[in-house]
Automatic annotation (TrEMBL):
Keywords: Repeat. PROSITE patterns: FN3 (PS50853). This is T9SS type A sorting domain-containing protein. The lineage of its organism: Bacteria, Pseudomonadati, Bacteroidota, Cytophagia, Cytophagales. The keyword Repeat applies. The keyword Repeat applies. Residues 35-124, 131-220, 224-313, 318-410 form the Fibronectin type-III domain.
Amino acid sequence: MKKHCMPAMRFVLYALIMNLLVLSPPAYSLAVPVVPASLKATAVSPVQINLEWTDASLDETGFEVERSLDGKVFVRIADLPANSKAFQNLQLIASTTYWYRVRSKNASGFSAYSNVVSAVTKPPVITIPKAPSSLAVTTVTGKEINLKWTDNATDETGFELERSLNGTAFAKIADITANATAYADTGLASTTKYWYRLLAKNTAGKSAYSNVVSATTLEVVPNAPAGLIATAVSPFQINLAWTDKAVNETGFQLERSLDGVTFTKIADIAANRIGYENRDLAPATKYYYRIRAVNLIGPSAYSAVSSATTQQIPVPDMPSNLTAVPLAPDLIQLNWSPVTGNANAIVVERSQNTDGNFREIARLPASAVQYQDKDSLAITDYYYRIKAVNAGGSSPYSLISIVRGSTIITANEPLTNQNRIYAYGRTLVIDLKPKPQYQLSIYDLNGILRNQQNVQPSSRIDLGLLHPGIYIVVVETENTRLTHKIVID
């Protein structure tokens, strides 16, 4: 029994061992791949960086490439097959820094990251920009021309605009920013033709010029004059000066005012003038002025208002050597030396008292040196003075000349055969031309009235109350005056 069992047990044991060897899997598991080594980054153009590394693993199934813009936050940009050792990163931005890292992977997972490297893409390759085209004038005014064009470049840093007054000699007038397609040329002269051309530029150089265009500015009203100054140079004249700010005026209009509000045109002045003499003015008077330029389009704005006051006329010199002499009881003659200075007239004044109550009795030409006062009818003292006058005022008065009443009554008027006045003893005899009535006045030599009464043309007057002496008899009507000296014994 035991002899037959042994072979069978051996067979079962052998079968069990073979089963285990054939059917059971290996007892070990696959590890993650080794990290890539020696990562390098090389910029080869403005848009490309090449990466290279050492594949240190034998069991990777691929690689992952990651990139960062700040060296901190990385993003996967490529999955590469196993055994890869390089990568070309394209479509980058010129002059930009990029950071990179790489790791390998297999079914068990990822390796650690490689070293981090960075590279800066090369600067862009700059070429001369394309020339702008279709330069054209859009609008024109009297002082401005507007331009537009087509920008054919994508890499210009700006434009240069040139202008010419003859279409041949051009000069740059403006640096214009990149991507602009229009420009306004301002501050131009009116009725003037201008030519324009344009180019694009960058650090590589300048493009060819655009086409040339031209336009003529319109006529406009002139610029207003500036800096108007009024200066009084005499009692009768004010000189005006201003700055001509226009190039297209046909003339100027000068206006004047006495109050600074209501102005009246006083002169049309030729173009390009910068001064004017306003004459025949009143002395010591303030005048206001303003001026504007004009042309066929119309007037400019007014200048600022300027004012000046004409000078005061110097008064004449004081008259001198005034004398007053009675020639008759109703006639006193004044004489004086010729008046010097710019007098227009001589004024004669008279007073009958010493309190200075003078009144004008005559106004004579400035050349006068004599005056006869025929209005001195009263037997009293007279005071005379004269002054010279002009538009500027009056001279000082002359010294006063006095005519005493006693000298007036001693100036006899000659009697005719028809007029007789005399004393016969103590009787006054009067025989005159027939008149309705006379007034008789008898004065002593001091000018004191001693007797006054109405008398007939033929009268006899008793003088018995008068003391012996010399008396003056005045017989007068409205239009006649007779004076005679009598002696009473």
